[in-house]
Amino acid sequence: MASPTWCIESPRLTISHLLPESDAHCDFMVSLYNTPEFIASIGGSPTDITTREAARKHLAGRVRETHDRFGHGIYLVSLKAGQGETRENENPLERAIPIGIVSLVRGTDPDPEKSYPVPDLGFAMLTEHMRKGYTKEACQRILRYADEELGLQQVLGLHNPDNEASYAVFKSLGFKDQGLRVLKVFGGVVGQVWTMADVDGDKLSVYGLPDEVASLGAES
Q1: What does the pLDDT read at residue 1?
Q2: Boundaries of every domain in the chain
Q3: What is the 8-class DSSP label of residue 41?
C-alpha cells in the first residue's frame, strides 16, 4: 500500500505517491487530466476523470494496481515550500503544492502479458507550471530513483510523433532517438521511441518493440 509519507526530493520538487483517500490529490488529478495540453497528449479525446469520485476510483484502481504489480507507476510531483519557509522537523509534503505527475509504467494494462518488459517515462504538468524546468527536474530525479532503488537499467520514452514538447524533454535528458515504431501495447499506433540506455535500433525486440522503423500511417 502506498505510504502517505514516502517521498524523494530534488532541489525544487518532491515526488510522492498519489493517495485515493486524499481529496486534494483527487481534485488535482481532475484539474491536470482536463488541461488542453494533457488531452492533446493522449490523442485529443477528453478523459472520463471529471469528478473527484472518478479520480478517486482511478487512483484506487489502475494507479494503485500498477504500483502493487510492478513496484512503480504514476507519482505526484509537487513544488516545495518557498526557500526559508520549511519548518524544523516538518515533512516536506505538508505544504508542498501539486503541480504535475511523472510516471514509470509498462503500458495501459496491468497484465504483464500486455505490457512492455521495461517501463516508459511519462510526465505532465499543469499549464501554469510548464516551461519552468520542472518536468526535466522531476524526470531526472525519478530516473535516478529507477536506477539506484529499483535497479532498472533501461527506461523507454514513448510519445505521439507530433508532441514537440515531449521530444524536447527526452532529447534534453540524453535519451537515444530510436525513430518511429509501431506500439502494439497501445493499440498498434505509431509512436516516437526513445531509450535511456544506448541500444542498436535493430535490437529493440528485447523490449517488446519492433526492430523495423515505421512511418506515419503504418498503424496496425
Answers
A1: 62
A2: 7-153, 154-220
A3: H
Burial environment of residue 151 by CB neighbours within 10 A (0 to 12, 13 to 18, 19 or more): exposed
Statement: residue 176 has pLDDT above 60: yes
CA-CA distance, 48 to 58, in Å (whole number)? 10
User: CB–CB of 213/180 below 8 Å?
Assistant: yes
- What pLDDT shows up at residue 90? 67
Count of CB atoms situated within 10 Å of the CB of 166 = 22
b/e burial code for range 83-108 (CB count within 10 A of at least 16 → b):
eeeeeeeeebbeebebbbbbbbbbbe
Those residues whose C-beta lies under 8 Å from the C-beta of residue 118, and which sit 6 or more positions away, are 106, 152, 154, 155, 156, 207
CA–CA gap between residue 175 and residue 191 (Å, rounded):
15
- φ/ψ of 63, rounded to 5, equals -65, -50
Please state the CATH superfamily assignment of the domain spanning residues 7-153 in this structure. Answer: Gcn5-related N-acetyltransferase (GNAT) (3.40.630.30)
Residues 99-131 have pLDDT tens digits of: 999 999 987 665 666 789 999 999 999 999 999
pLDDT at 175 over 90: yes
For 104, the enclosing helix (H) or strand (E) is: strand 97-105
